[in-house]
Design goal:
Elements: H1 8-16, E1 18-21, E2 24-31, E3 37-40, E4 55-57, H2 60-79
Antiparallel strand pairs: 1-2, 2-3, 2-4
């Protein structure tokens, strides 16, 4: 099975929907009020966009949306350089 061949750290990342970056683990969150998707290394108290306090950890669809938005942003940023 696929999961048995993964190192424990990678398996943890898949299960918890986290990203490991230099310096720690990054979780992706969604604001239930405005649907803003963002990443943080600690559980946020409020949404950085609208200030809403109903924050939840992102599901697979939200993570895919976040990653797509980041790719689009990065490609636009490179085009402006």
């Amino acid at each position: 099975m696929f999961f048995h061949s993964l190192p424990p750290c990678e398996l943890f990342c898949i299960i918890m929907k986290v990203r490991i970056v230099e310096g720690g683990i990054i979780l992706i969150y969604v604001c239930s009020k405005c649907r803003y998707v963002f990443k943080r290394s600690e559980t946020p108290d409020s949404c950085p966009d609208c200030g809403g306090v109903n924050i939840r950890q992102a599901d697979e669809e939200d993570v895919a949306e976040y990653e797509q938005n980041q790719q689009e942003f990065n490609s636009q940023d490179k085009g402006n350089s």
